Amino acid sequence: MQLKKLKTKSNIAGLFLIISITAFFWFSFINSILISNEKIEGVLFGYDCKINSRFNKKYDYDIYIENGGRYSSLNSIDCKSLDGVIVGEKVSLIVRGKEVLSVSQNEIELVSYSSLSKNHMNRLASTLIAALLLTMFSIWRFKSIFDNKS
Question: In terms of Cα–Cα distance, which of 141, 122, 119 is closest to 130?
Fold first, then answer.
């Protein structure tokens, strides 16, 4: 009898954990849809490129705009694409939250919006798939726990 109660409690705790993770994925998916792109213009104060340890030739970068703050990339790009940027000149950014999607200066697109937007859609799709799979697993687990009780 004690073993059965302990097993039921551990099943319910496991189910709670799965439901919490599922809720996180759904929140992440909905949040990604609700955040819209914004165009920001300002004087380029500076930028940093750091080697991304997962890729040999790809870098993570931060862009600093005067009176605008810091914007970062969640996408790994080659830093050579920012070689043509002139610090102290006006720059145009397309951002989503604090994530840079496009960098343009003097009507020249230095970091392409289309490729970074495609990466965002891939992340969005994988988050949706994970949320759906976890939801299906949670329902199956919920059903199996309470079918065993009856």
Answer: 122
